[in-house]
């Protein structure tokens, strides 16, 4: 299958560079270009894009708002958003993950990293994990209200009560950045069994993909950030 990619960035030159890179791959092609969030949302609906490379800072409707619009549209449940940012650690990135993005990538990433990120997001099987991802989540997501508060983490016990003990265990390992194969090896089960647990946890918690599972694990207090 060909991965259909939508580019959303207000810099024409940057979009052109991304288009050349994406279109050079036999398994993917660019189906549209947007210069702001509103246009990105409309093109996501009209082009049938699988993955949106979304800049955060754009005029008018920014990438954060556009990501939320896409994730909340029932017609776009299969669309995956990859946030592109100049800053490896950025509060807007965590907000984007909460809004429904599948992950993020720095604009300084190598071409192979970008192409790999597109394939990973399209597959919906893994969180994009540049070095900064774990630090970003630790630094910003953990600043929200804790398990005793009124925010999302304050409802942690209620949300997690739907999971079995094994599903909770798998969720902790997913939040640690482990792949299905790595989790399977650690738990001495098959990768297929792990995938089943992950899918069930996603369904019970209303997560779009593994990135959302990581966010939920931190928000509910199931996983605590390490204090450096």
Ordered list of secondary-structure elements with their pairings:
Layout (H helix, E strand, L loop, with lengths): L2 E6 L3 H12 L4 E7 L2 H11 L3 E5 L7 H10 L7 E6 L5 H9 L3 E4 L4 H13 L7 H10 L15 H5 L4 H11 L4 H8 L3 H15 L4 H10 L9
Parallel strand pairs: 1-2, 1-3, 3-4, 4-5
Helix pairs in contact: 2-3, 3-4, 8-10, 8-11, 9-10, 10-11
Protein name: Response regulator
Keywords: DNA-binding, Phosphoprotein, Transcription, Transcription regulation
InterPro entries: CheY-like_superfamily, NreC/VraR/RcsB-like_REC, Sig_transdc_resp-reg_C-effctor, Sig_transdc_resp-reg_receiver, Tscrpt_reg_LuxR_C, WalR-like
Question: What does this protein look like?
Answer:
The protein has 11 helices and 5 strands, in the order βαβαβαβαβααααααα. The chain is α/β, with parallel strands linked by helices. β3 (51-55), α3 and β4 form a beta-alpha-beta unit. Strands 2-1-3-4-5 form a 5-stranded parallel sheet, with helices on both faces.
Shape: globular
Counting H and I runs of at least 4 residues, what is the number of helices?
Answer: 11
Percentage of β-strand residues: 5-15%
Mean pLDDT level: 82
Structural class: alpha/beta
InterPro entries: CheY-like_superfamily, NreC/VraR/RcsB-like_REC, Sig_transdc_resp-reg_C-effctor, Sig_transdc_resp-reg_receiver, Tscrpt_reg_LuxR_C, WalR-like
Domain HTH luxR-type: 156-221
Keywords: DNA-binding, Phosphoprotein, Transcription, Transcription regulation
Modified residues (4-aspartylphosphate): 55
């Amino acid at each position: 299958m060909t991965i259909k990619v939508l580019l959303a960035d207000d810099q024409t030159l940057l979009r052109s560079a991304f288009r050349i890179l994406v279109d050079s791959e036999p398994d993917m092609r660019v189906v549209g270009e947007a210069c702001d969030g509103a246009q990105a949302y409309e093109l996501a609906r009209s082009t049938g894009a699988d993955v949106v490379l979304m800049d955060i800072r754009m005029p008018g409707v920014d990438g954060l708002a556009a990501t939320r619009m896409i994730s909340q549209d029932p017609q776009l449940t299969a669309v995956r958003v990859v946030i592109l940012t100049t800053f490896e650690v950025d509060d807007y990135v965590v907000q984007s993950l909460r809004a429904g993005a599948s992950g993020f990538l720095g604009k300084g990433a190598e071409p192979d990293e970008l192409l790999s990120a597109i394939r990973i997001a399209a597959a919906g099987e893994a969180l994009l994990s540049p070095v900064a991802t774990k630090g970003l989540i630790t630094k910003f997501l953990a600043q929200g209200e804790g398990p005793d508060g009124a925010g999302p983490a304050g409802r942690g016990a209620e949300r997690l009560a739907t999971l079995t003990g094994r599903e909770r265990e798998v969720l902790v390992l997913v939040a640690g950045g482990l792949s299905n194969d790595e989790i399977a090896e650690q738990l001495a089960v098959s990768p297929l069994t792990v995938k089943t647990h992950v899918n069930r946890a996603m369904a019970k918690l209303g997560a779009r993909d593994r990135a959302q599972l990581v966010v939920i694990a931190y928000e509910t207090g199931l996983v605590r950030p390490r204090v450096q």
